[in-house]
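Quick check before the chapter quiz. The format below is the same one you will see on the exam, so make sure you can read both the input and the output lines.
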Amino acid sequence: MVPAKYESPYAGVDRGEDVYRVMDLDLDGVCADYTEAMRQWLVHAGRMAADMHPDMRHYEMTSATGWPFQSVEEYKQAHREAEANHLYATMPVIQGAPEALRRLADEHVYIRVVTHRLFVSGQHQIVVSDTAKWLDDNHIPYMSLCFTGLKDTMHATIHIDDSPANILALRQAGEHVVVFDQPYNRQLDGPRLSAWDETSVPKLMAWMDQWCDDSGK
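Here is the expected output.
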């Protein structure tokens, strides 16, 4: 059942005490450390040296030095095998994310998880189930869980993402995006979160209030 404070379908509408704000939240590179999870899996599988830490200045693993991939197909095959071994249920959480997100939920922010994890076909049941398990195991609050690569088709008060391509597409669609800082996205303009810490919630709340005011809501 949807809580009463979330019954309104409109983002940013003042409903007396409650202000309904929608935050579209990416997972990999924002809440979950996909890069480290893949590195650990490759080490465990004997495909990568334990002391190897790849270059993080490129978003695409096939473009970054240090990864054992010579082609996109090699990467997808390794990713598919890691998925089957429950990569998405066991990956490390980015420090501070659960605590900050629980505080945002307490501030009446409607958290919608939006992730592009179904880009390799054949194992969608595992991916969806393991994603939900990981969210529950790490006590991350959310009201909706969406799997899509077309993030620029989704309207929200605020989006948090790390992917340069997603950030640019969302901004071109007129959406407000906060960049979650990673080495591969530092060429992009802010606003930016460098980490989930005690300053994250006040910053996000201020940006949401500003953007709601800018839109005339």
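If your answer matched, good. The first helix runs from residue 34 to 44.
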